[in-house]
Amino acid sequence: MKKLKVSGDLTGGFLGAVIALPQALAFGVAIGVGAASGLWGAVILCFLVGAFGCNQPLLSGPTGPAAIVTASALAIVNGNAEALFAIIFLSGIFQIIISRTKLIDIVKYIPYPVISGFMNAVGMILIILQINPFIGAKTLATPALALESAPKTLLSINENALVAGVLTLALIFWTPKFITKIIPAQIFALVVTTIITIAYGLDLPTVQGVSSHLPQIVGADFSNIKTLIIPALIIAVVCSSESLLTNLVVDSLTKTKCNGNKMVLAQGIGNIACSLFGAIGGSGATMRSAAAIKAGGASRFCAIICSVILLLIILFGCDFANKIPLSALAAVLFKVGWDIIDTKLLKVIKYAPKQDLFVMFSVFVLTIFYDIILGVSTGIVLSALIFAKQIADKANVKIRDIEDEHAIFLEKKLKDEMGYKIRVVHIFGEFFFGSATQIISHFEEVLGTKYIIICYESENILDISAIFALEDIITRLKSQEISAQLVIKNKEIFDQLEKLKITEQLGEHNIFYSEEEAIEHAKKLLKSNTPKKHR
Questions:
Q1: d(CA 411, CA 519)
Q2: Nearest 10 degrees: CA dihedral of 150, 152, 154, 160?
Q3: Which residue from 258, 275, 428, 436 lies 20 to 30 Å from 39 (Cα-Cα)?
Q4: CA–CA separation, 24 and 40 (whole Å)
Q5: Predicted structure pTM score
Q6: What's the pLDDT tens digit per position in 243-260?
Q7: How many whole angstroms separate alpha carbon 495 and alpha carbon 517?
Q8: How far is 40 from 85, CA to CA, in rounded Å?
Q9: Sign of the C-alpha dihedral, residues 301, 304, 310, 313?
Q10: Looking at the chain, which residues constitute the CATH 3.30.750.24 domain(s)?
Q11: 208 phi and psi, to 5 degrees?
Q12: Superfamily for 405-528?
């Protein structure tokens, strides 16, 4: 039986709470139900997912994508908070239903351009919606309204609010490292800015409504049930998807495996409980969970400790919380929005296939100016159509059968001589978004292997999903101290890998044009790195 690393869970839980605090406050205000609703959402959801989910340090609470769909739901019911809590309740029911099905597996097959377009849109929506509170104006419900009212809003800037927002933003980006090692930049910036605004008595909008009283059970308005079902389903799908993505990150960092169905079930229970106490729901929070794990978090107690610390902050720090400037919270969400944007793709955007960019841009625009479900569903349909066209265009192309007698002889001889210390994996057919997930799964269990030779048998260049899948494979193998070697068919593929800097990550000396060369190279490396036995 494993010993519980209580000290690591305590440190991880504390760090997670410190990161969650400003974001929970900000999301509650941004949605339009108040800072207290955001804080209690973080407390309730984090505790229940920790208690009923997997034994992992997976922290939950209000997040960017969850906040955006929740704000959209509030707009649909014309600002009726009781109807919103009914929607959150129903979304929890839908999550429980989803957890009892195999729908969870579908998330793995969503194309990368769709995910990228969605995340970029969520990040941009967060930034656009915070422009008004950043300058002391009223928060508006949609990006379209915020952009439309921008000319008028800019004529009535609250200078005190703007100064507080700029100061917070500066501190978030430029706080010295010796301070951020002790306390995260976001919480440090909020504390310093709030103290300064109190000291100088600045007149500006601040957080209101946070009290030390425990939350009461609130009523929910189910009177117009037909209107509630669609937004509830959207929230359930978005929160479940984000939680599953967080789950994958936690699995990777902790080298453990969590049952996705169990985790989504716990998220559903947590969101139902949030709705009963007038709190906003949420999902698994990737950034908080990763930070907690790096600080030593190793079990479910990390999430429970995070929740308890947030509760103590509410009970004993509510007076200070009510004095935090709204423009300072807007600055925090500017940073959150920027972190959500897929900068990884932006760095290689000029090399990305045009069809991937078209899908990503379509999802991006539709999500911002219409709604999330239309944006994501359109992206999936477009990806499917583009893929179908690619398959149809290549229907007459013959792919050489790699398992010829020479290859079989080589690999059988390799197994006899080296056991499983050197393995060869062939990627047949097209390496695209659909096959990428399955190919990655082959690298989950490679115990005892020192070198893996990946033979990419297609003569076509890789799409963006395949590029990032290849990066993931290399990273996973490195984390297990396994060296990867790649066999490709032509220089065109090599040039693409070089432009995208995959050759730097893999090493040019580990890229070959024939399987035989790769095997001989791996044998030499294995022999040179094997300690000699002494009699």
A1: 9
A2: -120
A3: 258
A4: 8
A5: 0.64
A6: 887 887 788 778 788 888
A7: 20
A8: 13
A9: negative
A10: 405-528
A11: -135, 155
A12: STAS domain (3.30.750.24)
| 39 close to 310: Cβ distance less than 8 angstroms | yes
Rounded Cα distance between 434 and 390, Å, is 13
**Dist CA 36 CA 22 (whole Å):** 12
Q: Which token pair is 353?
A: 């296939």
Spatial CA neighbour of 290 closest among 3, 19, 2, 4: 19
Q: What is the C-alpha separation between 447 and 420, in angstroms, rounded? A: 9
Residue pair 54/265 in contact (Cβ under 8 Å)? The answer is: no
Q: Which string of DSSP letters, residue by residue, matches 76-129?
A: HTTT-HHHHHHHHHHHHHHHHHHHTSSGGGGGGGS-HHHHHHHHHHHHHHHHHH
The per-residue pLDDT for range 87-98, each reduced to its tens digit, is 999 999 999 999
CA angle 93/306/177 to nearest 5° reads: 130
The residues near 297 (Cβ < 8 Å, ≥ 6 apart) are 8, 9, 11, 12, 13, 16, 57, 289
CA distances from 79 to 71, 141, 336 (A): 9, 9, 25
pLDDT digits (tens, 9 = 90+) for 33-73: 888 899 999 999 999 999 999 899 999 999 888 888 898 89
Cα distances from 225 to residues 78, 90, 281, 295, 343, in angstroms, run 15, 10, 19, 44, 40
Provide the residue count of the chain. Answer: 535
d(CA 517, CA 497): 19
Cα dihedral 441, 446, 451, 455, rounded to 10, equals: -30
